[in-house]
């Protein structure tokens, strides 16, 4: 079968090709009714834009650069799925780069993306990135940018994040409601946006329930291998020891679970555990692990939409803003109420 073209859609709907083209790009110049008519018909006949043909029409590469810390991380793999779904439907292809949590690699990746003439960049900052002057320089040059998940307040760009504060507040509140009072928090480098937001939610819940914040119960990780074991060991050496652990990442949640099992600590009879994770296997662990879940795919989809909006409607795009998507608390056996807890 020959591929469907914009001319075919225009002929079927009795519209001009320029109107169809603008409607498919979600242009502000086209009425919502016409956009809906064109999009519905395009979906019905399985129309897909040809990125090569589109790029030949102008200087656009029809490519989006995506810079993430690690593709193997389940959150980022789901976010990339969302990005690619939107990009594909809008006639863009995606070039993915990994920083492996390195600031230097982030710089190199962004330089490589720019050299490939991407139309815009979607970025989640590395754990080593505290200076964002390289991104300010790109913004000054007019390159469309959107940050997602790990963001920077000092950048006046569109940002898409999860409700980290709300998720941490809900997790800590749940532990307090089950009688836990010495809740340890294992988290990631302190200057990262997600670290600060999750720590703030943890502290707010403690305050709400009249439990003093104890900085000795907070440990910051560095993304090192097997570091959760030593963090758990340090916390268990305290008197009295923690009666619950709330972790701020997939890696720390699994590391904490392993460390507690290794020491023969019963979960949740001795110590409760909640992770901040997108791990689909959380319910398959022993015991099934309570988690705060993040809408990773939706974050990717919305970030891609915001970026394409900038690329295609530079003069009418929405002003830079931060969009916060809700998290959810999945309560499982690792934090269930134990009647013997005082």
UniProtKB/TrEMBL annotation:
This is LacI family DNA-binding transcriptional regulator. The keyword DNA-binding applies. PANTHER family: HTH-TYPE TRANSCRIPTIONAL REGULATOR GALS (PTHR30146:SF109), LACI-RELATED TRANSCRIPTIONAL REPRESSOR (PTHR30146). InterPro entries: HTH_LacI, Lambda_DNA-bd_dom_sf, Peripla_BP/Lac1_sug-bd_dom, Peripla_BP_I, RNA_pol_sigma_54. Residues 4-58 form the HTH lacI-type domain. The lineage of its organism: Bacteria, Pseudomonadati, Bacteroidota, Cytophagia, Cytophagales. PROSITE patterns: HTH_LACI_2, SIGMA54_1. GO terms for molecular function: DNA binding. It comes from Hymenobacter saemangeumensis. Keywords: DNA-binding, Transcription, Transcription regulation. It holds the Pfam family LacI.
């Amino acid at each position: 079968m020959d591929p469907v073209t914009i001319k075919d859609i225009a002929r079927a709907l009795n519209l001009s090709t320029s109107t169809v083209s603008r409607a498919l790009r979600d242009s502000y110049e086209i009425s919502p009714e016409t956009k809906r008519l064109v999009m519905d018909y395009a979906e019905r006949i399985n129309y897909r834009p040809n990125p090569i043909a589109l790029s030949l029409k102008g200087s656009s590469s029809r490519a989006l650069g995506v810079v993430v810390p690690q593709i193997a991380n389940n959150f980022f793999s789901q976010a990339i799925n969302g990005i690619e779904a939107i990009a594909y439907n809008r006639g863009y292809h995606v070039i993915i780069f990994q920083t492996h949590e390195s600031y230097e690699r982030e710089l190199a990746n962004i330089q490589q993306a720019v050299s490939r003439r991407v139309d815009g960049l979607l970025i989640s900052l590395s754990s080593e990135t505290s200076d964002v002057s390289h991104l300010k320089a790109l913004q000054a040059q007019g390159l469309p940018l959107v940050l997602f998940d790990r963001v920077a307040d000092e950048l006046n760009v569109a940002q898409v994040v999860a409700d980290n504060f709300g998720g941490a507040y809900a997790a800590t509140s749940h532990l307090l409601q089950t009688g836990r009072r010495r809740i340890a928090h294992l988290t990631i480098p302190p200057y990262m946006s997600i670290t600060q937001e999750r720590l703030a939610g943890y502290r707010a819940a403690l305050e709400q329930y009249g439990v003093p914040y104890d900085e000795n119960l907070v440990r910051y990780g560095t993304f090192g291998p097997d570091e959760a074991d030593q963090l758990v060991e340090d916390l268990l050496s305290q008197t009295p020891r923690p009666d619950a652990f709330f972790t701020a990442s997939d890696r720390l949640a699994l590391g904490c679970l392993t460390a507690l099992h290794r020491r023969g600590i019963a979960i949740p009879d001795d110590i409760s555990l909640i992770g901040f994770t997108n791990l689909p296997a959380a319910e398959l662990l022993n015991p099934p692990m309570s988690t705060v879940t993040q809408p990773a795919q939706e974050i990717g989809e919305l970030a891609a939409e915001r970026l394409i909006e900038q690329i295609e409607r530079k003069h009418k795009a929405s002003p830079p803003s931060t969009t916060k998507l809700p998290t959810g608390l999945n309560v499982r056996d690792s934090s269930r109420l134990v009647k013997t807890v005082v």
